[in-house]
């Protein structure tokens, strides 16, 4: 029975599964024995459900990559942010500010952390609403002293110092609010709003996002009063995916072919409801005849008894018709189109679309 049971749990090639090696080692007390790893591709090909042609190596570096069209849409959106920030933050600080769009890249968060210096940069978390997920904002401290000096009435010609004081940090917080407001103004088209959360220490960055997460890094180059620095937004995957997906939808909608647009419009038009009436052609009647009208009176019309009524849709005569009954409902038996009648509007059903 023991041999039969062992054969039942063996693999298709007659070899035990890797977890069985570990179990045998545990029973024998040999803790150094490790499960034998079988090549992933070999296991897949050995499966009766997967052919060798279906097995392809997966490149984790390409997961979540950005296409050329998506990259173009992201750059166009954030170049608008750069122009708005140049004007509004510059006006707020009473100086000339130049903001240029830099790199847009996907990068593993752990690799990005290796590029961030431990000193000389201001780090803050910003919340992306309505998702409620935190992103990272990085601003070079070389821009902080001239910015604060300008806000305090100076010329901005001041050398960079160390960490900002509490008063300077409170002033800097107002500048960060302006940056978040301008980003929200541009990103409201994709349904995202950026809100300042709190300042972050360099040692706390590892807990802000998953180290292996592919993040979207947006870099901007700032220059004012002779000082140059860098502003970065680091967006986690959940935020960048929303941004990329909605931008892709807008891009597809804007670049949809005319035939697709016409077909879609025709489908939508079919659901439009028109006011339709069945009525006789206009005729004249004297004012005396109108004043003599009473309930039960018979009003003689200046029309032939053979004169057909007209079916009108949205005020336009379409067909000659005669009133009939279909079950318990009134109906109209259509005749010729009204386009053959000189006194009526020359219109057909197709021209209504």
What does this entry look like structurally?
There is one protein chain. With 353 residues, the chain is of the alpha+beta class. It folds into three domains: 2-57, no CATH class; 68-254, CheC-like (Chemotaxis protein chec, 3-Layer(aba) Sandwich), CATH 3.40.1550; 266-282 and 305-353, Surface presentation of antigens (SPOA) (Roll). The protein is 35% helix and 24% strand. It is built from ten helices and ten strands. The chain has helices spanning 2-8, 18-28, 40-46, 68-93, 109-115, 144-151, 166-187, 237-254, 258-269, 287-291; strands spanning 98-108, 121-129, 133-140, 193-199, 214-224, 227-235, 276-279, 309-313, 316-326, 329-337. The chain is elongated and about 100 Å long.
């Amino acid at each position: 029975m023991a041999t039969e049971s062992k054969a039942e749990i063996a693999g298709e090639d007659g070899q035990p599964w890797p977890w069985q090696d570990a179990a045998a080692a545990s029973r024998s007390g040999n803790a150094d024995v490790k499960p034998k790893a079988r090549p992933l591709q070999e296991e897949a090909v050995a499966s009766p459900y997967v052919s060798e042609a279906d097995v392809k190596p997966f490149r984790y570096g390409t997961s979540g990559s950005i296409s050329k069209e998506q990259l173009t849409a992201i750059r166009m959106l954030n170049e608008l942010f750069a122009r708005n920030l140049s004007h509004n933050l510059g006006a707020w600080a009473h100086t000339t500010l130049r903001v240029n769009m830099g790199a847009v890249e996907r990068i593993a968060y752990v690799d990005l952390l290796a590029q961030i210096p431990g000193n000389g940069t201001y780090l803050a978390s910003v919340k992306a609403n309505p998702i409620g997920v935190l992103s990272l904002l990085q601003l070079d401290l070389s821009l902080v002293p001239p910015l604060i000096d300008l806000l305090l009435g100076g010329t901005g010609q001041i050398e960079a110092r160390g960490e900002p004081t509490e008063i300077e940090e409170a002033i800097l917080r107002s500048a960060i609010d302006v940056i978040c407001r301008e980003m929200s103004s541009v990103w409201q088209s994709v349904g995202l709003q950026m809100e300042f959360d709190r300042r972050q220490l360099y040692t706390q960055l590892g807990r802000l996002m998953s180290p292996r997460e592919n993040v979207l890094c947006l870099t901007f180059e700032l220059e004012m009063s002779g000082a140059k620095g860098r502003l970065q937004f680091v967006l986690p995957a959940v935020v960048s995916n929303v941004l990329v997906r909605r931008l892709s939808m807008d891009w597809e909608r804007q670049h949809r072919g005319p035939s697709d647009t016409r077909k879609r419009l025709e489908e939508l038009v079919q659901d439009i409801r028109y006011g339709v009436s069945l009525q006789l052609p206009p005729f004249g009647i004297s004012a005396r005849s109108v004043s003599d009208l009473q309930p039960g009176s018979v009003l003689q019309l200046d029309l032939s008894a053979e004169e057909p009524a007209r079916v009108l849709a949205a005020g336009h005569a379409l067909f000659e018709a005669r009133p009939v009954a279909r079950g318990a409902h009134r109906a109209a038996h259509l005749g010729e189109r009204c386009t053959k009648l000189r006194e009526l509007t020359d219109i057909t059903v197709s021209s209504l679309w």
